[in-house]
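Our preliminary data section would be incomplete without showing what the modeling component actually yields. Below, a chain of 94 amino acids is followed by its predicted structure, encoded as tokens that our downstream tools consume directly.
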Amino acid sequence: MSIRKAGGDWEPMLLGIEPRNCKVCQQGLYRDKTMFRGGWSRCSVCDEFVHYSCLASGKISFLKQRPRICKSCRTAEEQAKQAVPSSHPAPVGS
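Predicted structure:
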């Protein structure tokens, strides 16, 4: 009797691979698409993987903001900042 037959039936040892999509552009995060375009990084706000090109720009357009923030989180932060000052009435001075 061989060792393989003594062990019984083996299930295939394949890990479940779930494809990841960029949160901003909804395209796949695969090496064949992103290798020459900068790859991907994790957003520090939403903790999701996004393409490097989908990260928010810094002071210089081709450099990215630190800490890494995706474009959708940055627009949400800017909208929240704009909503806060407009909700408070202006102080009345004499």
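The first strand starts at residue 40 and ends at 42. The chain is about 25% helix and 5% strand. Preliminary results of this kind motivate Aim 1 of the renewal.
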